[in-house]
TrEMBL record:
It comes from the Archaea. This is Cysteine--tRNA ligase. Pfam families: DALR_2, tRNA-synt_1e. Its cofactor is Zn(2+). Binds 1 zinc ion per subunit. It catalyses: tRNA(Cys) + L-cysteine + ATP = L-cysteinyl-tRNA(Cys) + AMP + diphosphate. It is found in: Cytoplasm. Residues 304-331 form a coiled coil. GO terms for biological process: cysteinyl-tRNA aminoacylation.
Length: 478
């Protein structure tokens, strides 16, 4: 039996909590995407694949999940890059946005919505206006607008920074009420892109975009807010302050989930630290699905070290999974539909059930993909040992269907593992034929054999109902 209870580690409460959406079966997930001023790198992939696994698992468990992942297409870093390279900032944005979308595609991370900041300027202005009107923000003489952190009484709890001394952030200390206030709107500086606003020309600060775009697409409260753990402070702390202040809801986000950083040489891989391995370079050396498998088989909260060795291991794991499936497909063409289930088959079926249960138990334990992946590799082991040594229809198709189920989370194998072939058999006609033969046996008063057929079909989930000399059949729900 698949356990129902999923537990999720919530950064806000620092505990594992039972997963309960606000509305049963519906999950909204917002993940902070990239600032597009450089190539997407392996660190990004770590976070994107991790949340893709979360989404796929929730879907496997029957939730209707909407996944929004924003694109920050205006920011100091983009402007600086454009200035350094003597290019238009929009050119920089276009180049790296398509690099990002291409990487997602290759990694089989399918996001439902990719909202961009520059397409939401009027929504941002409206949000900031409301924050000012409700006393949570103020306009400085420069025309910049700041969030007044003192008006929000829960600041620092998400990041565990409960002392004000730990809050200092961002520039413009001179015109802010407090050093820990942060910019919602930045007044235009000469030569910078700008939009008109009630406070003069300028552009949005970083944090406001996620409060605005998440509420636009997911509503004023939602289930999962994700990103790398590097974003907990100040980005998520600020988002939370803005949204809870304006919407008056608490909690604004039910589960805050943060991925562990991908490191290289003991340091976070990041554009600012200039130690990135761009995905487009890595994909020349490794199949993107090898990269995906490595990341999808790690627990999302662990710190990962980038190395050739881990990728080579993932490469060999992927090869093994593919070979197992290829072997099963070959066997599926050779095995015959059995008359009777053997004790051996029952034993191996039980082993497969245990692997399936372990997979779900691990995933239910805060999406422990690493534990769950052990089941996938063990299934592979069964294929090369007990299944291939005594191949049977039952075991081959059960193993294929299990791979298909696991792959709905892993996403590294073909989506169609050949199970369609089973449905291609003229199933109804075959059952009709058996029922016809049974009718003849009954005519000949061979009730013993007729009852045997009825019982055997029943154990396969096919119920026969006799009405005089006519028989109907239906598939019993399991
Ligand atoms: N090394 C990393 N490991 C895991 N996640 C990361 C890593 N670097 C960035 N992320 C995540 O990827 C998403 C996009 O991040 P962002 O564009 O800010 O990248 P960055 O390389 O950290 O850039 P910068 O150095 O300018 O901050 C965020 O959710 C962020 O938390
Ligand atoms: Zn964000």
């Amino acid at each position: 039996m698949v356990p129902i209870v999923l537990r999720v580690y919530n950064t806000l409460t620092r505990t594992l909590e039972g997963f309960e959406p606000f509305e049963p079966g519906k999950v909204s997930m917002y993940v902070c995407g990239p600032t597009v001023y450089d190539f997407s790198h392996v660190g990004h992939a770590r976070t994107y694949v991790a949340f893709d696994v979360v989404k796929r698992y929730l879907r496997l468990k029957g939730h209707d999940v909407v996944h929004v992942q924003n694109i920050t297409d205006i920011d100091d870093k983009i402007i600086n890059r454009a200035r350094d390279e003597g290019r238009d900032w929009r050119e920089i944005v276009d180049e790296y946005t398509s690099d990002y979308l291409d990487a997602l595609n290759k990694l089989r991370v399918f996001v439902d919505m990719h909202p961009r900041v520059t397409e939401h300027i009027s929504d941002i202005i409206e949000f900031v206006q409301k924050l000012i009107a409700s006393g949570h923000a103020y306009v400085a003489p420069s025309g910049s607008v700041y969030f007044d952190v003192d008006t929000y009484d829960d600041y620092g709890r998400l990041s565990g920074r409960l002392d004000k001394k730990m809050w200092t952030q961002e520039e413009f200390a001179t015109e802010k009420k407090n050093p820990y206030d942060f910019a919602l709107w930045k007044a235009r500086k000469p030569g910078e892109p700008y939009w008109d606003s009630p406070w003069g020309p300028g552009r949005p600060g970083w944090h406001i975009e996620c409060s605005v775009m998440s509420s636009r697409y997911l509503g004023q409260r939602f289930e999962i807010h994700g990103g790398g753990s590097d974003l907990i402070f100040p980005h998520h702390e600020n988002e939370r302050a803005q949204s809870e202040s304006l919407f008056g809801v608490r909690p604004w986000v039910k589960y805050w989930m943060h991925t562990g950083m991908l490191q290289v040489g003991g340091e976070k891989m990041s554009k600012s630290l200039k130690n990135i391995v761009p995905l487009r370079d890595l994909f020349r050396e490794y199949d993107p699905l090898v990269v995906r498998l490595w990341l999808a088989s790690a627990h999302y909260r662990t710190i990962l070290q980038f190395s050739d060795e881990v990728l080579r291991q993932a490469q060999s794991n992927l090869q093994r999974l593919k070979s197992s499936v290829a072997l099963l497909k070959k066997l599926s063409r050779e095995v015959e539909i059995p008359g009777r289930v053997s004790d051996y088959e029952i034993e191996v079926l039980k082993e497969m059930s245990t692997l399936r249960r372990d997979f779900y138990e691990n995933m239910d334990d805060d999406f422990n993909a690493s534990g769950a992946f052990a089941s996938v590799m063990k299934l592979s082991g069964l294929v090369f040992s007990k299944i291939s040594s005594k191949p049977s229809y039952l075991l081959v198709y059960r193993a294929l269907s299990l791979f298909e189920e696991f792959n709905r989370v892993l996403g590294v194998l073909d989506e169609d593992l050949g199970l369609g072939a089973v449905e291609m058999l003229p199933f109804d006609e075959v059952v009709d034929l058996i029922v016809e033969v049974r009718a003849k046996l009954r005519e000949e008063k061979n009730y013993e054999l007729a009852d045997y057929i009825r019982n055997r079909l029943s154990s396969l989930g096919i119920q026969l109902m006799d009405y005089g000399d006519k028989t109907k059949w239906l598939l019993a729900s399991k």
